[in-house]
Inverse folding.
């Protein structure tokens, strides 16, 4: 028979895992660096994050990288609307932060599509920078801060 203490502990662990679930929407050259987060060198699962989810309803953090066109923007909005509860967005790479590098294309900034919590600049940014942004997001959730953070600027000041 399962005791109340064991069932409560199990419930709290599920809540903790939910708060550390990440859903990725990537394309372009930044997707290679984001894919490295799952490799043995950076292994986010070893750090306690759930990254192998197939349904955005299980996530609380959305990481978007790469060039955003109107069709991809619709997909981003759809996924963002499916994330339940307290949600956060991390914009990774120069294209998602400041539009397309191509002058004649109809690129969008991620802030034109939905609110962004943390920006990770770079073309492409290193996996270490993305991990640091995820950890920074976790600290801001603990402190209940809602200010927008640019990862590079915080690192230079700190």
């Amino acid at each position: 028979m399962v005791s109340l203490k064991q069932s409560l502990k199990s419930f709290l662990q599920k809540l903790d895992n939910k708060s550390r679930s990440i859903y990725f929407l990537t394309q372009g050259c930044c997707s290679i660096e984001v894919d490295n987060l799952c490799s043995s060198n950076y292994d986010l699962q070893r750090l306690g994050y759930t990254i192998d989810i197939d349904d955005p309803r299980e996530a609380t953090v959305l990481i978007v990288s790469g060039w955003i066109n109107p069709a991809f923007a619709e997909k981003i909005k759809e996924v963002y609307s499916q994330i339940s509860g307290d949600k956060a967005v991390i914009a990774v790479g120069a294209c998602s932060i400041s539009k397309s590098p191509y002058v004649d294309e109809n690129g969008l900034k991620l802030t034109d599509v939905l609110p962004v919590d943390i920006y990770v600049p770079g073309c492409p940014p290193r996996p270490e920078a993305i991990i640091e942004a995820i950890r920074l997001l976790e600290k801001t959730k603990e402190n209940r801060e809602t200010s927008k953070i640019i990862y590079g600027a915080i690192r230079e000041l700190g």
